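Lab channel / #folding
Pinned by the channel admin:
"Please post every new chain as: sequence first, then the structure tokens as a reply. Keep commentary short and put observations after the output so the thread stays searchable."

First post following the new format, from NK:
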Amino acid sequence: MYIQLLRLMAEGLFAPRTSARWILSGQNGLEVAVQFAVLAYCLQAMLAVVIPGARPVELTEDGIPIGSHVLNIIAQVALVGVLGLAVYGLGRLFGGEGTRDQALVITAWHTLVTTLLSPLFLLGASATRGGSPEDMPIGVVFIFAIGVSQYLWVLACYTMELHGFRNPWSVLGVMVAVALLFSTALISLGTTA
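Reply from TO:
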């Protein structure tokens, strides 16, 4: 069962359109979206323990309190919900056909699939801990850039399949433009406050 799940996750990362069609054909509901998001958090938390230097704080004698994990799971589900609603709303704005529930399931699946990229992100985060991003080795920057690119590409392909769009590059362009506009607005709000 675990090998099958890993195979499906790898397919989701390297054949995202096929994976998205498979997930969407299942007509899964919100409970599956929540399960994907929780499983993704659990896998990410395990990877953070295994990868040296990946944890932001060292464990105490008592370990990490269970309440911390519960709050992080709630935050993970909320972030998947926000991303899913953004994928749904923006897709519909541009003429997409996907439903809200489908968008939430596909973004939760995206979160689970891109857990395979977590080691790249965790290594990048641990390389910058205690120093500035300028001090990060060029190899780590390159690996981190590959991880971010793959993360965005998979999300663009999933969004394309969800809404019935034709070109993943157009979807990716809109995603980057919206992210830039949103971050510019946040920076503008931050400087006026």
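NK: The longest helix spans residues 66-93.
TO: also worth noting, The mean pLDDT is 85.
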